[in-house]
Amino acid sequence: MEAASKGKAPLQNRLGIKGWAWAGRYKMERYLYTLHRITGFGLLLYISIHLIANGFRLGGEASWTDLMSVMGNSGFKIGEYLVMAAFIIHALNGGRLMLQHLGFTLGKPKPPVYPYVDSMRRRRPLTWIMLAVIAALALYVLIEFILEVTG
Amino acid sequence: MRESHLKLLQYITAIGIFFLVGLHLIISHLSSGEPTDWTSVSQRAASSGWLAIYILILLFGIYHGMHGIRGLILELSLPNKAVKVLNWAIVFIGLAVFGYAVYIPIHQFMAPWQIS
Known about the structure:
The complex is a heterodimer of chains A (151) and B (116). Chain A has seven helices and no strands. Chain A is mainly alpha-helical and 151 residues long.
């Protein structure tokens, strides 16, 4: 920001792609950043497969039924569960990011009194609540999937 | 368009996707019958309400996905020329995917005799 205001080029991302996975000792929010990316890529992969599969509808009933018989195997069922889990994680973590980016959950500024605590860590209970909701929803969906497969 | 406006659109599309995909999952998977059965697929394909939901999910989903990918690539500190190429590539790919994906439900809605 300061560099941009003085007309200088911003600092380069020297770590490149490696920095997405490892850039030093991470706090919890940084792992959530990595998880957000992984789930985002996973959902993009699923959507690509979903759109290609939808194209089989144009081939008529026989084409669609053949495809569905292939997608009915347990491997695809596990994939479906992972997609649902990725959707839950990406949606709830995305909601947390939105609230923080727009400043709703950052709280009021405080004087810098030692030991210093940044606003992200002061609001960590929100992250814990979000993780608990993710775990509960992922477990609920897992039970639903197991009941569907075994029932 | 300013970056802040693009980011705001990213948030708006995220909220849209959350509710529309939720609606899609709840209606199609909690209703009676198997949602992937040809009969069920045909019924949804002939509905104008479902067509509207599909088109909105595609619009929101493709914008959200393409803007997300753009954000990832921009973190690599590209030169200005490469950023311009990237922006056009993202728009072009997004439009191409939207064109392909929207053709399927529109075609089936306009020609229901082919699916019944």
